[in-house]
């Protein structure tokens, strides 16, 4: 299998995942499609970390674009040796993959913290905006009867749990794909662009 084609395939997958991460993060800002909670600054601290937009989004888009363009990239040649430039390009893709690892890692960490900490909401007991599940360290996820403690925004627990979980999964897949490209880039750089001698 061609290392360049593999990188390009990974690039297209990362592109789709990065767009989905951005969309999921944007939705976190608008519980139930309402804008008033964002404008009134009634969003949780982990919602505002831009982990899906910046981490799983922009920082993953960078390697995605690099990987997609790898198949045709020859780094302008390398000391006159044929295909050496393509090996150089494959090795340079490892650096782009590390950027993706950082972005997806950030997305995973913040999503996990967001799930563990719980939403910021208005509760009937305190009659104020608080983090009612912060002390449960994620235990609230299995205590569905407590979810009704959050009165505003409506269904905020379900909203946050769904979107943070999606971002956690997307970040995890992005992390794995970038790690695969690190191995692919090293092998492609050392062995040449293709395993097949006909293509090399």
User: Could you say which structural class the secondary elements and strand pairing correspond to?
Assistant: mainly alpha
Number of domains: 1
Give the oligomeric state of the chains in this entry, treating copies of one chain as homo and distinct chains as hetero. single chain
What is the tally of beta strands?
3
Radius of gyration equals 21 Å
Distance between the termini: 12 Å
Total helix count? 5
Molecular shape: elongated
Please provide a written account of the structure.
This protein has 200 residues and is mostly helical. The chain has one domain (2-30, 43-68, 89-191). It has helices spanning 3-28, 36-39, 51-69, 84-117, 156-191; strands at 121-123, 129-130, 150-152. The protein has a 3-stranded antiparallel sheet, with no helix packed on it. A hairpin with a 5-residue loop joins strand 1 and strand 2. Helix 1 packs antiparallel against helix 5. The protein starts with a helix and ends in a 9-residue tail after the last helix.
Name some characteristics of this structure.
single chain, 200 residues, mainly alpha, three-stranded antiparallel sheet, 3 strands, elongated, disordered C terminus, L6_membrane, membrane, Transmembrane 4 L6 family member 1
């Amino acid at each position: 299998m061609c290392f360049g084609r593999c990188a390009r395939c990974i690039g297209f997958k990362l592109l789709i995942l990065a767009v989905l991460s951005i969309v999921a993060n944007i939705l976190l800002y608008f519980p139930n499609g309402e804008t008033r909670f964002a404008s009134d600054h009634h969003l949780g601290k982990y919602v505002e970390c831009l982990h899906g937009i910046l981490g799983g989004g922009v920082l993953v888009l960078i390697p995605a674009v690099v990987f997609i363009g790898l198949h045709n990239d020859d780094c302008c040649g390398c000391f006159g040796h044929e295909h050496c430039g393509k090996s150089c390009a494959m090795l340079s893709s490892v650096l782009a993959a590390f950027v993706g690892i950082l972005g997806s890692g950030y997305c995973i960490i913040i999503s996990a913290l967001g799930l563990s900490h719980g939403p910021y909401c208005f509760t009937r007991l305190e009659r104020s905006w608080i983090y009612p599940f912060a002390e449960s360290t994620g235990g609230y996820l299995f205590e569905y009867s407590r979810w009704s403690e959050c009165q505003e925004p409506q269904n905020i627990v379900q909203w946050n749990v769904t979107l943070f979980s999606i971002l956690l999964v997307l970040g995890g897949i992005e992390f794995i794909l970038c790690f695969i490209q690190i191995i692919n880039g090293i092998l492609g750089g050392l062995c040449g662009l293709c395993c097949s001698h006909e293509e090399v």
